[in-house]
Amino acid sequence: MGLPTTKARDSSRIFSATKMETTMRMKTLFCVLALAIAPAVQAQTYPAGPVKVVVPFAAGSSTDLIGREAARVLSEGLHQSFVVENRPGAQSTIGASEVARAKPDGYTLLIGSNTSIAAAPFLLKSVPYKPLTDLQAVARIGAVPFVLVARADLPVDTPQALIDYGHQHPGKLNWGYANAANQAAAAMMTYTSKMDTVAVPYTSVPQMVVDMLGHRLDFGIIDTTNAGPQVAAGKLRALAVTSGQPLQQFPGVPPLGDTLQGYELLGWYGVYAPAKTPPQIVDTLAKVLIKGMDSPETKARLAKAGLIPYPAGPEELARFGQLETDKWARMVKAAGIQPE
To answer: What is the 3-state secondary structure (H, E, C) of 229-272?
Structure first.
């Protein structure tokens, strides 16, 4: 048998090369399909294990309380463990940045608020994440009014009396803050009323309360969750609420807007995930949260803690976050707060 001709050998090489190219193309196609299908498969099986819920404030804060309620709702609705981890500090940016850097697979979530999403960029010189682009809005879950409280032995019983006392004792009164809402709320009040006071930073609202009870802090504007029990026990004096209307929880306590025209402030909370989290996972979380947080049982738990339902889905929360960011930029400027 003779050797194959040059033409036959060339044809054999061309066939082998074509076969190799086809094989490579098929492998590439399979890889592309696998990458495209993987997120969908992941979303269908989500959650397949425990999920971390980061609360960027200390235990006992209103953010912690509503975060644990949201975790309970998700655990019951999705039949998996949603475990709360507290990461307080730096105006909530420590915990928020941890979530922003996390893998976008739905297994790390943030309990965000007006502090971490809207206010931090205007209160701090440097924020290690971009709230509106590095975090994916999932669902707004609740809100909280605030209360102007003073230590029980301070000789004032109305907002105007506090303002007058501040004018009579310039530089003597001090007030505390542990988050953006505390800071902006009290700064706006003292700035617009021309009070000469001293601001004292804290890492948590419960610490502020402890110092007011110990007569080391004169006043502050804090959430109803922390204020309610102490006011009811007569250990702190409620002077005003920051909502537009009086609150049933604090009978006889007027809105601060009655003294300072146009003054109104509400804290809010939402669940966020890292940017680029699959839409199917975001949708799953949002549906469970909105339904669960609106249940009679959850509403009763929120009301007991001084919190109110404030539901919204991903798109509405994203729009709301932008509006709140614009509002906080104006508020911080109006209050004369300098970034720290």
So the answer is: HHHHCCCEEEEEECCCCCCCCCCCCCEHHHCCCCCCCEEEEEEE
DSSP assignment, residue 3? P
The tokens describing 294, both together, are 């609106």
Same fold, 51-143+266-335 and 145-258: yes
Q: What is the mean pLDDT of the chain?
A: 89
Q: Which CATH architecture fits 145-258? A: 3-Layer(aba) Sandwich (3.40)
pLDDT single digits (tens) 277-310:
999 999 999 999 999 999 999 999 998 888 888 9
Sign of CA dihedral 58, 59, 65, 71: positive
CATH number of 51-143+266-335: 3.40.190.150
Q: Quick one: how far is CA 201 from the chain centroid?
A: 19
Partnered with residue 135 across adjacent β-strands are 274
Q: Which amino acid is at 64?
A: D
Please list the residues that pair with 9 across neighbouring strands. Answer: none
Amino acid found at 312: A
> CA–CA separation, 290 vs 299, rounded Å?
12
Q: Please determine, for residue 333, whether its predicted confidence score (pLDDT) is greater than 90.
A: no
Nearest in space to 255 (alpha carbons), one of 161, 130, 158, 152: 158
Which residue's structure tokens are 């700064």? 187
Give 84's strand partners. Answer: 53
